[in-house]
Amino acid sequence: MVQTRQSLTTRKSHFKASTALVMTIALAAVSLVGLGIFFKLGAAPEERQDKISKELEMKIAQLYVQAQAFREQNKMDEAIGCMKQAVELLENDKSTDRLPLVSAYIGLSDMYRSTGKTDSGEPEVKRAKEIILKDHQEENALTCAILHREGLYKYIHKDYLAAEEYFQQSLTCSSSTISSLSAETSDDLLWLAHVYLAPGMNNPEKALRCLRQVEEVSNAVERPSHMISVQKLQGMAYLAMKRYAEAEEKLLASQQLTERLFTDANHPQRVHIKKLLEQVRAAKSAK
């Protein structure tokens, strides 16, 4: 494990932004990590004396389910309220196991960020990091989740060099603690591609290398959201390189998959891809 206390400590930032992809990546990651914590089965009673109680586990799990249901109904204030309740219950718990609280703070941060409330969401990640450091739990997979979210906030704040550093740390962390072929590593690679295509970075070749790695472990059936992003970002990279035919091919593939997944013509992904195609075709015509 290469993560250290120093690798988890960087500058603060204060801007506001959000994307649909961020929300998708964030909620999926917390659901997997959080529910994994809350449903550890088969432990002997003496091994669980320092763990949260079964009763509290069930309360927290119910709040997670309610938060997800409210999110699907676009009732984000109610969803955030559920996550705040989970944090409060776990803060008041007297057990020595603080990892469920770390997961709840991450989930609350994700909820805030998905509604554009980054000023409220960022401190929750900081609090999660403080607990990990205080309890010497840097080897835990939640460290990877924290690093990834710090990278997201840096990207939102347009601090692309810092974002690249965090995503690289998260990628290394995920590869060593989870799997070199996991959804988490794919998310890090996708966001590194975003970073390399960002203004001031302008490195489409690096972006394409990241995307090829994601392509190797993703497909349109198992990970359609990843494939939409891969093809769209590949189109953006080829556009930056003025390779318009390849850009159009990738964007058309992404558009077809997006239209199958999202029936609403005004879905942000569909709108973005449509605009990119228009940009590519205008550039081709101008040649």
Chart the SSEs and their pairings.
Layout: H1 20-38, H2 54-72, H3 76-92, H4 99-114, H5 118-134, H6 142-156, H7 160-177, H8 183-197, H9 204-217, H10 224-240, H11 244-261, H12 268-286
Helix pairs in contact: 1-4, 1-6, 2-3, 3-4, 4-5, 4-6, 5-6, 6-7, 6-8, 7-8, 8-9, 8-10, 9-10, 10-11, 11-12
Verbal overview:
The chain has 12 helices and no strands. The chain has helices at residues 20-38, 54-72, 76-92, 99-114, 118-134, 142-156, 160-177, 183-197, 204-217, 224-240, 244-261, 268-286.
Brief sketch in words of this structure:
It contains twelve helices and no strands. With 287 residues, the protein is mainly α.
Question: Largest sheet, if any?
Answer: none
Could you say which structural class the secondary elements and strand pairing correspond to?
mainly alpha
How widely separated are the two ends? 50 Å
| Annotation field: number of helices | 12
Report Rg: 20 Å
Percent helix range: over 70%
Fraction in beta strands: under 5%
Q: Provide mean pLDDT, rounded.
A: 83
N-to-C series of helices and strands: HHHHHHHHHHHH
**Low-pLDDT sequence parts:** 1-49
Features:
single chain; about 290 residues; mainly alpha
